[in-house]
Amino acid sequence: MISISTFIAAIMILIVSSFTPNLVAVFGGDNPSKGYMITVGIGAVLMCITTWGAFLTCKERYKVEKKPEPVIPGLIKMFKIKETIPMLAFWCVGCILFQIIMASSVYYCMYFLANPALIASYMMVISISGMVGVMVFMPLILRKVKGCMKKAVTYTQSVCVM
Description:
The protein has 6 helices and no strands. The longest helix has 29 residues. The radius of gyration is 20 Å and the shape is globular. 4% of the residues are buried.
């Protein structure tokens, strides 16, 4: 189920990064503000549907009996685990790098290539290459690290930082 969810997320990123300008023009006409509001609204509805769909299809595999714990002590307990902070740091760096790539791609198309019409095509190429990375290379990396997701994520995030 995780690979299907990952595939759907990659397709959604592809659609958003590649076709947003076209959707804004279709929905907004001469008013790009209206087009962006409608496009973001549709994206939000689709995000809610896919998120709830993933939530409803997930099955709990392990039943652990434990008493309810207050949120703050639970967070404190979670941050006492030594791997939590490095993993959060790696994920934050990955998110920041993704945003830098997207912003620099727009800059590249607008000012270096001097053709804003290429933004959608360029984003589609970047998104497809990212999707191939997730769908093809992540399973290979998992095989290399013998199925340890923690090592695989640390490895991939370290490579991205470099």
